[in-house]
Amino acid sequence: MFHYQVGSLEEEPPLLAQRMVERGLRSCAVIADQSPVGRRYAEAFEAARGRLGLDVTGAASISPLTENLVDVVTRLREGSPDALVYFGLGVASRAVALALAELSWLVPVLANSALMFGYARPDWRDGFRGWEYIDTIADDNPSRAALRERSPRAAGGPIGCAAYDMGRLVGEAVARSDHLTRAGIAEGLRRVKLLPATSGHAGTTMGFGVYEHAALKGPYLVLREWLDGRSVQITT
């Protein structure tokens, strides 16, 4: 198996914890889905926040499909956290946003890459206003800029960029294969090195190896926020 990373359970939480430190946010409440994804995000965040000296004032484990979190958010608000952090698959992020609006709680919110749901659900974006989250597209990436000239639609979001990159990886693997069999293509993939990626910040590359089957190398996770109905890259 070869993996193209559209996010990372292990690497996103430390990035969000570091972002809290940059913003001077020293404590948070954590909401995480009751799922393998939500639990692993929360575990990785716990390790990162401990290392950085951040405090957790409260935590809640929720159904990934929940639609009402007013009681949960009310309880977490009582701890007076500096921020609220959401980890999960994304569906429940809508319930978090609705609960914050109902309670008029203007707390900074940070979230994992699940907030890429905003690309597919424009009607959710107002609820995410000001939320900072992990994405995989950057405005300073020259490879993405080149793709935008050819296909603005493909370059407009993380899925289009990822699909383009994966197609390039397969094409490069075919070109490097000695024979067009499953084993030959696998060997061709392992020969792909330092291919500029459309995802990630400038300098992100793609490639594989005998023991390295994750495609993206370098700064492939990007901090963005939802503002005025669109995703905006965070530059500070």
CATH topology of the largest domain: Rossmann fold
How far from one another are the termini?
Answer: 36 Å
Count of helical regions: 9
Given the helix and strand composition, which structural class is it? alpha/beta
From the alpha-carbon coordinates, what is the Rg to the nearest angstrom?
A: 19 Å
CATH class of the largest domain: Alpha Beta
Low-confidence stretches: none
Number of E-state strands: 10
CATH superfamily of the largest domain: Response regulator
Strand coverage percent: 15-25%
Which oligomerization state do the chains in this entry correspond to?
single chain
Total domain modules: 2
Question: What is the global morphology?
Answer: elongated
How would a textbook summarize the main sheet? 7 strands, mixed
- CATH architecture label name of the largest domain: 3-Layer(aba) Sandwich
In round numbers, the mean pLDDT is 96
Q: Helicity level, as a percent range?
A: 25-40%
Order of helices and strands: HEHEHEHEHEHHHHEEEEE
